[in-house]
Design the sequence.
């Protein structure tokens, strides 16, 4: 690369130093980043990558943007996250675990964590506590939703970051994209779906493959969960079935509390 | 053979004007940013020149109309033209950096090529106002769409009666076009400026725009018959100013306002600026107050 | 208009004649929970797939003329500027085989705003002008209120319209192209008895519409009831998901998005159909939202369709196909909303 600065329409384009980190997660989101070979080189040329365990061995502690995957389930993770926050100008939560706690936070449903630890790890005691999203420990600047994330969305986010464009997520529910893909509504086919309340942006990935939405991207703005509950009932699904889905990725935590209260009444 | 013939909409035999309409829908003019002047901390004045000399000369607009400005890949948005109509395709846009497009534009150097389409929308009927007094009342950024009618009136100053410009801003640092006030005053224009909160250097009045308006209304003679009002500003100001003008018996059809809405096309298609039944981009942005009364949620 | 009659088993000949072109028509996409067929428009590759006795399709024809996402143009960034390439995305004429009157009327309504207005939309026009439309008589469904909207029959906007007389098709011919195609079939001019049969079939069909909307003075009533509490009741149910606008054959609202490619050498401008029910529909740069509440947005949808469009074009922007109500998971239907705004009907909240 020459030292000459890249520009777009005459405006200098930054080439931020980026680092990738993972906490409690499957690292699937980072793999997604490496997935599309067709655009990988262009993608990498927008950033100076200084730390990416999935892809390289060298590492540096100087970076502008930190992409962080995974939820926080141990004290040492929290400590490390705080250190990352201290170094990064922009901290991006990548994937449902980082944004909401993800599948990991399902363990929080158990009242007795000590019992869970024993069942899972037996005599190999592991230091683990309730799974929480990054935002419970440090301020988060940007969130990339999804389980896993969509490569296209990350590419758009990174392009916009270097151009200085704001990052705009769809605020409407998945239904909008599902209808645009002219799918038959899964409720009509007898399957439950969180599409009507979940934030779009996935291009109705699951519903297009005839798999009802589980809400991995969290709630859409103005999500009408109260109405969805009624719709679930009308279609023969129980509150438990609705709660199973709403609780799966942790994005609907506030709604779940309200719903549980309502279900008791 | 029963293959249906392919119809090329541009090549199809239609009357030529229509064909041009179709072509001009997407084919915007390219224009160059020739100069940029910072006006305040957030607003800049952009001088743009349509590159093609023929198009530049043909480009004509009425005061109050707007153009869509596009930066490829960044975005497109409507901006009212704040230059004099006699300058054709050498236009000036005053733009505040609030969104993607405007913030990027604020970083764009001189010489950047942008896309311009338009002019679109309705205008202030400055010719109809000839022979009358005019009150131009602006709050904050509301001065931007008023600058073109001010120029238009100044260029034919003798044809108009008393001209009052009443302009209010939050504080002196947010005042726009300060360098032009003296020039405007030379044309026998009564320019009053008021700010919500003063700074150390401010010598003028402090308070609400309605205080000045009250004085002006009291001073005006036979306001209902002789005066036209042009109002632009934030919704709260609209409401108070228009209420006051109506109370002073200024007929609704002599009050003109310029409304802001989100627009994606500027061509009466996308519906984003639609207020119930009215496209702000086709039937506006300039409305008389009677039309505004009939627009639910307008101000 | 010219009329011809041909035997029903000749329809496949008409299909074969046209099959050299792309053909879009109604086909069965699956069965719903009750085992009833779900129909939709799609490309047809075999005459046997074509379900001309379909009830109603889930989605309208809109995606073929106004795709949910469409690249309007691309930009090549160069050292000293940029070049713009425009593509109207229309390459081949397409035969639309088996449209109901409501859907043809819907296209006619879209024409008014997209091609008949001050700034015609060439993307739409290019696709619209490459359509060959064959209409068929429908079977009224319990949710169809096209009769109230005056769209249960269609006068123009098609090439050919077929009515099933039992053993033969009665064809209304509306274009020279259609006339040529029909004449290559074994057909003849209708007899007096067939004229009568045609009128009878139309009347019998008309008598089977059960769903109604009272449109008397509706524009005024919408103004009068602007602050009515019922809007809030419907707003509480609304999911703000945009499903109604997506399945609607006449909703055309859109948004424009521009994106730069990863290589920073190219950019594109995309139009994506939007819905006035989506939360940020009326949000302006700087963040102010003119319609933050769900009932406001829902109300504006009705305002645009049943008041604004009527004022502009003397007709409503609704053809009464009932798709929005059928697709709405919250069961918000046009007949019920309008009845409630008129102060009729029971409790909806």
Sequence:
């Amino acid at each position: 690369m020459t030292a000459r600065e890249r520009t777009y329409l005459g405006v200098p384009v930054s080439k931020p130093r980026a680092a990738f980190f993972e906490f409690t997660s499957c690292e699937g989101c980072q793999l997604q980043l490496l997935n599309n070979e067709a655009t990988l080189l262009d993608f990498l040329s927008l950033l100076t990558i200084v730390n990416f365990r999935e892809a390289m061995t060298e590492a540096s502690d100087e970076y502008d943007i930190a992409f962080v995957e995974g939820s926080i389930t141990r004290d040492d993770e929290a400590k490390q996250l705080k250190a990352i926050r201290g170094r990064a100008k922009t901290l991006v939560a990548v994937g449902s675990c980082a944004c909401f706690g993800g599948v990991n936070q399902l363990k929080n449903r158990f009242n007795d964590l000590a019992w869970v630890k024993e069942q899972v790890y037996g005599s190999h005691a592991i230091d683990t506590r309730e799974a929480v999203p990054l935002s419970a420990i440090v301020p988060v600047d940007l969130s990339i939703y999804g389980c896993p994330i969509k490569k296209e969305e990350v590419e758009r986010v990174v392009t916009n970051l270097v151009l200085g464009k704001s990052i705009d997520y769809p605020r409407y529910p998945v239904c909008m994209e599902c209808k645009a893909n002219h799918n038959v509504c899964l409720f009509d086919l007898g399957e439950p779906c969180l599409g009507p309340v979940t934030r779009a942006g996935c291009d109705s990935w699951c519903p297009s493959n005839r798999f009802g939405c589980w809400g991995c991207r969290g709630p859409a703005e103005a999500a009408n969960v109260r109405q969805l509950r009624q719709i679930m009932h009308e279609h023969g699904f129980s509150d438990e079935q609705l709660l199973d889905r709403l609780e799966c990725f942790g994005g609907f935590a506030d709604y779940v509390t309200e719903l549980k209260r309502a279900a008791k009444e | 053979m029963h293959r249906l013939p392919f119809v090329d909409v541009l090549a199809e035999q239609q009357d030529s004007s229509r064909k041009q309409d179709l072509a001009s829908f997407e084919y915007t003019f390219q224009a160059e940013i020739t100069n940029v002047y910072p006006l305040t901390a957030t607003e800049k004045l952009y001088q743009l020149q349509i590159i093609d000399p023929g198009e530049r000369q043909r480009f004509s607009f009425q005061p109050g109309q707007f153009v869509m400005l596009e930066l490829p890949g960044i975005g497109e948005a409507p901006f009212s033209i704040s230059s004099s109509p006699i300058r054709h395709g050498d236009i000036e846009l005053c733009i505040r950096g609030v969104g993607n497009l405007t913030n990027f534009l604020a970083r764009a150097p001189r010489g950047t090529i942008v896309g311009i389409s338009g002019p679109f929308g309705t205008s202030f009927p400055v010719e109809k106002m000839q022979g009358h007094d005019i009150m131009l009342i602006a709050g904050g950024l509301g001065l931007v769409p008023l600058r073109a009618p001010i120029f238009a009136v100044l260029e034919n100053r003798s044809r108009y009666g008393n001209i009052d410009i009443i302009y209010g801003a939050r504080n002196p640092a947010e005042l726009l076009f300060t360098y032009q006030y003296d020039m405007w005053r030379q044309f026998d224009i009564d320019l009053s400026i008021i700010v919500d909160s003063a700074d150390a250097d401010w010598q003028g009045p402090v308070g609400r725009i309605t205080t000045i308006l009250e004085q002006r209304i009291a001073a005006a003679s036979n306001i209902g018959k002789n005066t036209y009002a042009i109002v632009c500003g934030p919704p709260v100001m609209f409401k108070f100013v228009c209420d006051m003008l109506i109370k002073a018996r200024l007929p609704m059809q002599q009050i003109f306002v310029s409304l802001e809405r989100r627009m994606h096309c500027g061509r009466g298609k996308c519906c984003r600026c639609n207020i119930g039944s009215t496209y702000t981009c086709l039937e506006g942005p300039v409305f008389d107050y009677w039309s505004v009364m009939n627009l639910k949620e307008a101000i | 208009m010219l009329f011809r009659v041909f035997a029903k088993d000749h329809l496949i000949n008409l299909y074969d004649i046209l099959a050299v072109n792309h053909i879009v028509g109604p086909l069965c996409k699956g069965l719903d929970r009750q085992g009833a067929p779900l129909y939709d428009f799609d490309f047809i590759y075999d005459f046997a797939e074509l379900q001309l006795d379909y009830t109603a399709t889930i989605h309208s024809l809109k995606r073929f003329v106004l795709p949910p996402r469409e690249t309007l143009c691309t930009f090549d960034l160069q050292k000293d500027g940029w070049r713009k390439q425009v593509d109207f995305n229309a390459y081949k004429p397409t035969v639309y085989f088996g449209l109901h009157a409501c859907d043809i009327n819907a296209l006619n309504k879209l024409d008014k705003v997209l091609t008949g207005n001050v700034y015609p939309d060439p993307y739409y026009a290019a696709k619209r002008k490459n359509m060959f439309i064959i209409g068929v008589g429908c079977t009224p469904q319990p949710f169809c209120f096209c009769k109230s909207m005056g769209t249960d029959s269609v006068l123009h906007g098609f090439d050919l319209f077929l009515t099933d007389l039992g053993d033969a098709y009665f064809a209304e011919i509306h274009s020279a192209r259609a006339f040529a195609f029909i004449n290559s079939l074994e057909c003849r001019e209708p007899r007096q008895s067939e004229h009568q049969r045609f009128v009878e079939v139309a009347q019998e069909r008309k008598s089977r519409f059960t769903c109604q909307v009272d449109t008397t003075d509706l524009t005024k009533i919408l103004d009068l009831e602007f602050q009515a509490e019922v809007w809030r009741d419907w707003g509480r149910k609304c999911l703000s998901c945009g499903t109604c606008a997506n399945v609607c054959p006449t909703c055309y609202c859109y948004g424009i998005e521009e994106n730069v490619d990863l290589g920073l050498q190219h950019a594109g401008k995309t139009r994506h159909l939007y819905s006035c029910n989506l939360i940020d529909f009326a949000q302006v740069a700087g963040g102010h939202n003119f319609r933050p509440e769900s009932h406001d947005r829902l109300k504006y949808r009705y305002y645009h369709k049943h008041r604004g469009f009527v004022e502009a074009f003397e007709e409503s922007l609704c053809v009464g196909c009932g798709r929005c109500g059928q697709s709405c998971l919250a069961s918000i239907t046009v007949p019920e909303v309008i009845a409630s705004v008129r102060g009729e009907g029971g409790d909806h909240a």
